[in-house]
Amino acid sequence: MNVQTPKLLFRRQLLHNAGRGMVREQSRCFSCSSRHAQQPTNPPKPSQDAPRLTHFGFETVAEAIKEQKVRGVFSSVASSYDTMNDLMSVGIHRLWKDYFVRNLNPGQNPLKSSSSSEQGWNILDIAGGTGDIAFRMLDHASTINNDPYTKVTVADINPDMLAEGKRRSLVTPYARSPRLNFVEANAEKLDMIPDSSIDLYTVAFGIRNFTHKDVALREAYRVLKPGGVFACLEFSKVNNTLFNEVYKRWSFGAIPLIGQLVAGDRDSYQYLVESIERFPSQTEFRDMIQDAGFLVPGQGWEDLTGGIAAIHKGVKPLEPKITKEFIN
Amino acid sequence: MASPSRLSRSIRPQFRSSLLRPISSRQSRLYHSYEYAQPPPFSPAESAILSSAIAHVPDHGFSSSALSLGARDAGYLDASTNLFSRGAFDLINYHLVSQRISLKDAVQFPGEAEQGPGKLGIGSKVRALTLARLRANRPIIHRWQEALAIMAQPSYVPPSLAELARLADEIWFLAGDVSVDTSWYTKRASLSAIYSATEIFMTQDTSKDFTDTEKFLDARLEDSIKLGGFLGACSEWIDYTGHSVVNVLRSKGMRV
């Protein structure tokens, strides 16, 4: 508790400072729409110097600001990330992540590999600051596939999330091994990663927050080896109408409230549910992956828990497809 | 002339998009057409990996390791096996589909043109085709029980049964069956049952060149002919007796 208090105070201060220059976020949950209607609404101010707009939850903001705002959100949730995820998803997010990793089956048994030149997989985990996916990948590779070579590069735009991941890695066997390293990077500009060098590119609950998803997908295509896999675990659209009603109630009613009570930060969690709502549907996102040049397996995605989350995959082909620019 | 140019402009985007996405726009027909070739059931990348993976099945079984070895042979990575969401079942499915499709090239009925149709009865054609399909399992027969176990997993039962139905349909079609009555269904159902029973028998057959399997198949086909004859006789008897009863009642003055 003694450790937490100054940290909490500091965080609030940070958020307060960060929030001053921006348009105040408004809560627009279904359950409190009447309350919301009574409040005077201040429309988002269009800024003259940055005309290119994007969305931040249900708000419209300048593109330049979005990155900064997303950074603010995740800085403020980094320490309570796991507790909050458990409360919001009733623990199911762990099952999703476990399934995601088991399904990808990372790592290759060195005894079974024919060529000794290349050992283990080279995995890039984007927006994986807290290491959730990275540790699972390494565990799966070591214990299931007996592969001591597979390495994971964790990239995140947010230094606070990376610090949290580094702190957590200390209790794993990978803390000071060359198998795990952390990089602060924007998924749209992975300059430190060479072309065609990655076997598996994963992004779990991160791509939703990217300003330019298509640019990030193209960057993923660039860094992957031919035959490499792009895998994305992300919130998606619920298929069943009845279940959707219950789910929307929960996400717009309960999640911001839990955020307020547990993490002391309603706005960040309001952003979370709004950004989930704004994320493209399974088919739209599948088409985006195809447009970036990937081959998709089967229908292109797999729904988890009735479509609350979905796993999308894409494989980089050996010969690139003819792109739009080429034909025009 | 404004209208033709507008027309061509409106067509062009469609045409272009169909060029861009040959896979998504390829059409699969629900009927058999002699005019149009059926689209290939697997994309080029998928068939490249799967066909090289099949070569590893005798040693590694229908497993993910056969898949990743196949991927490596085809120039892909181990990770590329994520292209197959159902893992080993996709490999089994590839075997089933590719063997079904190659059946029409594997079995030719010679001499049909000179001596006219009917030289070889439909029954013996069905037998020849079924045997040819069973023989295609020979290289992997020692792994086939594993495959059957995977196919029996609850989520894979419907696609496996669907593939069995397609095989039975293919055999009757290639044998030249043109029935359009209810026997269309009973023929396919009985052939499916016979084929799957014979296939299971074959996994335990130790005889030279699977002669026992051949005998087993002949016995089952015989049974089905007997059963078919018995059912036919039964229905004929019921039909005759029913009419007789009605006629007797009518002769007694009853209004039936």
From TrEMBL, chain A:
GO molecular function of the protein, one example?
2-methoxy-6-polyprenyl-1,4-benzoquinol methyltransferase activity
**Membrane topology, from the record:** Peripheral membrane protein
Q: Which reaction does it catalyse?
A: a 2-methoxy-6-(all-trans-polyprenyl)benzene-1,4-diol + S-adenosyl-L-methionine = a 5-methoxy-2-methyl-3-(all-trans-polyprenyl)benzene-1,4-diol + S-adenosyl-L-homocysteine + H(+)
Record CDD domains: AdoMet_MTases
Q: What is the protein's major site of localization?
A: mitochondrion
A biological process term (GO) from this entry: methylation
Q: Please name the pathway.
A: Cofactor biosynthesis; ubiquinone biosynthesis
Which parts of the sequence are annotated with region: Disordered?
Answer: 32-52
Name of this protein: 2-methoxy-6-polyprenyl-1,4-benzoquinol methylase, mitochondrial
Q: Which organism is it from?
A: Delitschia confertaspora ATCC 74209
UniProtKB/TrEMBL annotation, chain B:
Entry's Gene Ontology molecular function annotations? lipid binding
Every COQ9 C-terminal domain range: 157-227
Cell compartment(s), UniProt = Mitochondrion
- Keywords of this entry: Lipid-binding, Mitochondrion, Transit peptide, Ubiquinone, Ubiquinone biosynthesis
Q: Which domain of life is it from?
A: Eukaryota
What cellular component terms from Gene Ontology apply here?
mitochondrial inner membrane
GO biological process terms, semicolon-separated: ubiquinone biosynthetic process
Which pathway does it serve? Answer: Cofactor biosynthesis; ubiquinone biosynthesis
The entry sums up its family as follows: Belongs to the COQ9 family.
What is the stated purpose of this protein? Membrane-associated protein that warps the membrane surface to access and bind aromatic isoprenes with high specificity, including ubiquinone (CoQ) isoprene intermediates and presents them directly to Coq7, therefore facilitating the Coq7-mediated hydroxylase step. Participates in the biosynthesis of coenzyme Q, also named ubiquinone, an essential lipid-soluble electron transporter for aerobic cellular respiration.
The protein depicted here goes by the name: Ubiquinone biosynthesis protein
- Lineage summary: Eukaryota, Fungi, Dikarya, Ascomycota, Pezizomycotina
